[in-house]
Each structure stands twice: as structure tokens, then as C-alpha cells.
Design goal:
The protein contains 15 helices and seven strands. By secondary structure, it is an alpha/beta fold. The strands form two sheets. Strands 1-2-7-3-5 form a five-stranded mixed sheet, with helices on both faces. A hairpin with a 2-residue loop joins β1 and β2. It is globular. The chain starts with a helix and ends in a 16-residue tail after the last helix.
Length: 313
């Protein structure tokens, strides 16, 4: 966070304090206003003396993409607490087991190929997408691994830095307390990778092929829609749809846990005094029946960009 940004925020707060007699209310309002300048989807929910700022994050935002993270960093520094996405906890034995079973996790079973599971039409589309690949290794990859490869072909920048990275960095610098909304155990993740049959991930492969067919232009359309606060457009992109149904977000055992933990954390934060800034996956917030819909169903006012498709509003 730059000295100039901090100085501007200090002057703005001082000016507001002259006009508004309640300094605590001014602080909350200023944090919300500052956060909204970030150029990413942000919602505000209040209950009693609690304010929750929900930041809709997406993965794969290129490092050189201009979305003004400085505003979000400034808001982070002035929040009372931060909520982060779930983290995985793995022991040494989990890691050793992962290495031991890597061959099982990385390959389709019993020497089968993708053609044994995909329809001829879908296999043909996969062949076309992978036409430039050197070798045929992809034909026997597990669908989890193949899904990752297809998402990279779709233009997903796994080295990118988005809202979650900006918030973590600012919280460390400002010494603001934060915690993940939940934990996913390493042994459960590994069991999941070992035991799920390939058919579980057929929706992932179909969606990832569509994202790869859209290519990097589709990935850029996704981040542009995110920066422009066009939330339904983000969720409608082939790449975002694929990320939603591929591992781990689309796993039938893991996905419900992630969504439940976020819904419970948002509700619990409304019982905490002051400002809680929560940086959450955009889809978990804005999908039908997601966190925003659930908060609205509780009778709470959700202030921020439209998150429902036009026909659903």
C-alpha cells in the first residue's frame, strides 16, 4: 500500500469527521466506500452494529490486469477482521500417501483412455483441442489432471494475483487478524482423489473442453466482466462454468462443504462488532441459492452490484 493512498485516506477521514458526529459510523462508511473503488464485485450487509463486506474473488486474474487492488488493500487495513477461503491441512503422512498413490491419482484406471468414457462427439472435440499436444499422454490422464490441462489451454493464469492475494498482503502489513472460514483435511482430499470414479468428472471434461474451445479470449472476457461488475456475465463464461464443475469445486463431496462453511461464516460475522471483510469465491456468493441469496432470504439488505440474471430478478 503506497504512502499516497494512506495519506489520501487520512485526509478523507478527517474531512468526513468534521461533518458527521459519529466517528465509528464514519469509519465503517469510509471502509465500504474505499472497498468499492477496487473495481471488483463487493457487497455490503449490515445487522445491528455489524457490517460485513463480501468481496467476490475469481482465480486466474493476470498480474498485469488493471483492477485497482490498492483500494481493496486500503479497506483491508481499516477492517477489524478478515475472512479468507478455506485452507487444506495436510500432514507428513498425507503427503507421503499422495506420493505413494500418485500413479493412481494421475492416470485413468486399468490402462483405459478417455475414449472409453467420453461420447464419440465429445472425444472428437477433445481430439481437436489437443491436436497440438506432443505425445498421447493426455489420453490416459485422470480426468482431474486432464481438466487442469484443459483449463490452462482455456487461458487460466494460475500464476495470477487477484483479490484474495491483495487482501492477504494488506492484512499482513496492517496486522489485521484473519482466519479461513474452514479447513479441508488432507486425508479427505486424497481419499477423494483415489476413490472417485472417472465418471464423476465427465461434466468437468465437457465444460473444460468448451472453455478450451473459447480459448484465451474467453478467459479475458471473464476477467473483464469481473472488473466491470457484470457478475452474471462472469458466471456465464465457459471458463467459470468449468472451474465450478472441475475438482475441487465441482467434487460432489467437497463442494457442499465449501458452500456450507461460507454461508455459516457470513451469518456468524454479522454477530461481530465493527467491520468484517470476507474475500470469497464469486460463484459461491452469487450463484442461485448462494450466500447472497441466503442473506437476502433472511430479510437482510444486500447492497452491491446485481448478481442475478435478468430473468431471475
Amino acid at each position: 500500500m503506497s504512502v499516497a493512498v494512506l495519506g489520501a485516506l487520512a485526509l478523507q477521514t478527517a474531512a468526513l469527521a468534521q461533518d458527521v458526529p459519529d466517528p465509528e459510523a464514519t469509519s465503517v462508511d469510509d471502509v465500504v466506500v474505499t472497498a468499492r473503488r477496487a473495481g471488483s464485485p463487493i457487497w455490503q450487509v449490515e445487522q445491528g452494529g455489524s457490517t460485513v463486506i463480501l468481496v467476490g474473488a475469481i482465480g486466474g486474474v493476470p498480474r498485469d490486469f488493471d483492477w485497482r487492488p490498492e483500494a481493496l488493500e486500503a479497506a483491508t487495513a481499516r477492517s477489524q477482521r478478515i475472512l479468507y477461503p478455506q485452507q487444506a491441512e495436510a500432514s507428513i503422512s498425507d503427503l507421503l500417501r499422495l506420493v505413494w498413490r500418485m500413479r493412481t491419482i494421475a492416470n485413468l484406471p486399468n490402462g483405459t483412455t478417455s475414449a472409453d468414457y467420453l461420447s464419440p462427439e465429445l472425444q472428437g472435440r477433445l481430439e481437436a483441442v489437443m491436436a497440438g499436444e506432443r505425445g498421447d499422454r493426455w489420453r490416459t490422464q485422470s480426468f482431474v489432471a486432464l481438466g487442469f490441462d484443459l483449463l490452462e489451454r482455456a487461458g487460466l493464469d494460475r500464476r495470477g494475483r487477484g483479490a484474495t492475494d491483495a487482501v492477504r498482503r494488506a492484512a499482513r502489513e496492517a496486522d489485521v487478524d484473519g482466519k479461513p472460514v474452514g479447513v479441508v483435511r488432507g486425508d479427505e482430499l486424497i481419499d477423494n482423489l483415489i476413490t472417485q470414479p472417472p465418471s464423476t468428472y465427465l461434466p468437468c471434461i465437457e465444460a473444460a473442453i468448451a472453455a478450451a474451445e473459447a480459448g484465451p479470449a474467453g478467459a479475458m472476457a471473464r476477467v473483464e466482466a469481473w472488473r466491470s461488475l457484470r457478475v452474471p456475465d462472469v458466471l456465464a463464461t465457459p471458463l467459470d462454468k468449468a472451474l465450478n464443475v472441475c475438482w475441487p469445486s465441482g467434487d460432489p463431496e467437497i463442494a457442499p462443504v465449501l458452500r456450507t462453511q461460507w454461508a455459516e461464516a457470513a451469518t456468524a460475522a454479522l454477530a461481530e462488532p465493527g467491520v468484517t471483510l470476507a474475500v470469497a469465491p464469486l460463484r459461491i456468493l452469487a450463484e442461485p441459492g448462494g450466500v447472497l441469496d441466503q442473506l437476502e432470504a433472511q430479510g437482510l439488505e444486500v447492497i452491491g452490484p446485481d448478481w442475478k440474471p435478468d430473468e431471475a430478478q
